Structure formats: structure tokens, C-alpha cells
Amino acid sequence: MVISQDKIKLNAEIENIWNLITQTVECTWRSDLSKIEKTDETHFIEYTKQGYPTYFTITKKEKPHLYQMELENDNMKGEWIGTLTLLENGQVLIEFTEKIEVKKAMLKLMVKPYLKSQQKRYFKDLVKKLEKIEKNS
Q1: What is the greatest pairwise CA distance in the chain?
Q2: What is the b/e burial string over 71-82, where b = at least 16 CB atoms within 10 angstroms of the residue's CB?
Q3: For the residues of 71-110, what is the DSSP string, one character each?
Q4: Where are the domains of the chain?
Q5: Could you tell me if residue 51 is left (phi over 0), alpha (psi between -120 and 50 degrees) or otherwise beta?
Q6: Rounded CA gap, 86 and 33, in Å?
Q7: Stretch 9-38: mean pLDDT
Q8: What pLDDT is attached to residue 108?
């Protein structure tokens, strides 16, 4: 199992962050996705810009602090955990943890750097979108 963790502190409303990371339809703010299909209240599919699907099942959703999912595609399966913590200074600490099992042995060495780059990209997209939201509030 490969575990990848990343975190960031943001000056944004925790509700705005929660609303962005838990939406399962709108993805125009994400630079890595072409679309998201919501299949029911706990299942959705994310498609990369190249059309590659990853299937998600929401397993825990405790607003506004914990969002947890199982994920699977042709190359890997595992768990994604997102936590939001409101800090004393008003910032929000966001921590993402992915626990992944690789389905293809040849991908084992590449999966951790891939996950790290995806988390960094997600945070960059999230910050950019939150700046727009906070600016318009």
C-alpha cells in the first residue's frame, strides 16, 4: 500500500472550502478533469481531460470536517480522506490522505510521485477558485 499525504493552510471560510471539495458535479475549477458524473447520492465518476474514469464511493461525510471516499480505476484502488480543521487564527488546515493499492506492479514506483503531483495540483486549483469566491463575497 502506498500512502500519500499533503496539507495546506488557507485563509478562507471553512464552508466555502467544504462546498468546493464535496461537490460532485461542478468541476470547471479543476484543471485535471473534463467532467464529473454523479450516479447517486454516494457515487460519482471523475473523468480526466483524456477521458479516463475513476469511480468514487463516499463513505463518510461529516460537515464541515471530514470527507472520506473509496476510489478505483483500472490502475489502482484505495481510500481518500480529507479533513478540515479551523485553527485559532481563523485559517483552515486542509489535510488530504490517499491510501492506494496499485493493481499493476509496473506502476508501483510511479504511484507516489503521481499522487503527490495530483494533490499539489488540486491544492493549486482550490486556492485559485477560493480566491475568486472570497473576492466576490
Answers
A1: 48
A2: bbeebbbbbbbb
A3: EE-SSEEEEEEEEEEE-TTS-EEEEEEEEEEESSGGGHHH
A4: 2-132
A5: left
A6: 28
A7: 95
A8: 86
> How many contiguous H segments (helices) and E segments (strands) does the chain have?
2, 7
How far is 64 from 76, CA to CA, in rounded Å? 28
For residues 90-107, give the mean pLDDT.
95
Distance in angstroms (rounded) separating the CA atoms of residues 69 and 105: 24
- The proportion of the chain whose per-residue pLDDT surpasses 90, expressed as a percent, equals 91
- For 122, the grid coordinates are 488540486
In angstroms, the CA 83 to CA 86 distance is: 10
The CA-based dihedral angle spanning residues 10, 13, 19, 22, taken in that order and rounded to the nearest 10 degrees: 40
Pick the CATH number of 2-132 from 3.30.530.20, 3.40.190.10, 3.30.70.100, 2.60.120.10: 3.30.530.20
